[in-house]
Every structure is written in C-alpha cells, then in structure tokens.
Design brief:
Elements lengths: L1 H11 L11 H15 L6 H8 L3 H4 L6 H14 L11 H17 L5 H5 L6 H17 L6 H20 L3 H31 L2
Length: 202
Amino acid sequence: MHHQQHKLGQDRQVPRPSKPLLTRDLIMRTALRLVDEHGPQALSTNRIAAELGVKGPSLYNHISGRSEVIEGLRELLTADIDFSAADLRPWPVACERLACSYRDSFAAHPRTVPLLAAQPIQSAEVLGAYEQVFGVLREAGWPENELFPVVRAFEYVALGAATDNAVGVKEAAEPAFNIGITALIHGLEQRLKAHLRATATE
C-alpha cells in the first residue's frame, strides 16, 4: 500500500511540457500573427522560433524554410475563401462571389500580400483551389490558355480592394470594388462571346 502511494506520488510529479507541441500548423499561425502585428519584414524562421520559445533548428523538423512558411500563409488565407461559390452558375456569378470572399480573406491579413506576391504559388492545396475555378470557366467555354489570366484578373481587383481596406477606407473601397468587378465581368463576357463566335465559324 505504502509502495503504491509512493508510486502515485511520483506520477504526480512528472513535469508537464511547458511549451506548446510544435506542429506545422502552429508554426504557420504564429508566422501569420507576426506578420499581422509587425509587418512582412518580421517574417523569419528565427523570429518564429523565438515567438514559440524554441531554438531555430527545431522548426526545420516541420518546415524546409522561409519559402515554405510563405506558402503556409497562402494556404491559411486560401482556406478562408468560400469555394462553395464554385458550384454557382453562370460563371460570372461564381467568379463575383469568389472574388468577394477572396477580398475578405486577404483584407483580414493585408500585410501578407507583399510576401505572397513575391513568390510563385507552390502549394498543392492552393493549386487545387485554383483548379476548382478553372473548372467553372472551362465549362463555360473559356480556352485553356486564358483560364489562369482570367482568374488573376479577378484577383488583381480583389487584392486592390483588400489592401485599400487596410488603410481604413472601407467605405471608398466597396463601391470601387463593385464597379471594378462589374466592369471586369462585362468585358470578359464580351471576350468569351467573341471567342465562342470565332471557334463556331472555324
């Protein structure tokens, strides 16, 4: 009995880990918080490690380096976009809804934009999300070589509005965003009609 009590006492003294368990997700969310609070220049693996109370090399069990962290930020923001809008038809409705959701996601973290713009997309998750939108456009008859430029055109308008929100002019950004998206859709509809006419007469 005495031995059992002694054993239980020993168990109670087992120290609990004081640091959070390092995971890729925790590293990415810490990086996002750093950029939100201190700007893109704050993003470094050493700064993330210090924030988590670990040594820099510990991060490399989970990530390959700064470039992967930037892709992780892109994944976090992309995960906040409502891709159920890709089920909507016709294609301009789907694209407008997606552009609005894209703007809202990036407007919540505008300081990440320079980092994301500085490197090409590498994440399989993000490329898969793009492929959903390409499917909508492909179905409508858009030629393969224009799928990415069309999606990027919507992104340009959305990112402009997202960074405008960052400087506290939401009221001005909203009508400008709506006018930009409406004009873009109108122009793209005309472009697609011309393409479909041209291919029908070939």
